[in-house]
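re: ur question from earlier - yeah i can do the single chain one, its not a big deal. heres the input i used so u can compare w yours
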Amino acid sequence: MRFFLEDKTHQNMLDTIKHLPPDTLSFVLSDNVPGKYSQAELLEIMRALPENLRSLRIDVSSMNNLVDSDIIDLINVFRGRDLIELMPGDNAMTRPAVQVLLDDVMRTNRENLREKEGSLMSRLLLQLDLNAPTVSAASSMDSEMLERASGVNGMQPG
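and the output i got, formated as tokens:
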């Protein structure tokens, strides 16, 4: 699911985020009002976003007023989460120091997500293997079925 929220107050935004469906994977945060959100409000909004969010577009005019260290704090919120795509909608996110950190966080998150998904797949395959009959059990079942079938038809196994 993808949600696009724009021009909400800080509290309205937090309330809306709290009620997002758990399967929300993509989110667009947008406003056209410079200075609408403080750095602390933006930080609170970022922290409230779902942990399993994969894609986020930030098009917030307020970010243009922030210094690099403030924007870096916002990006660091997503370190270690499932977010693998953070699309900057303004020039503040493309500043060199910000871009270096953004690239690092997204690369690390992609690697972590691949590991997590690989681990989940391995556990699933292991579980399937544990539930599957073993080769010897399967071959003994085949032998029993063959004996029954030949006995029903009046034929003796040869």
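The chain has one domain: 2-152. not sure if urs matches, ping me
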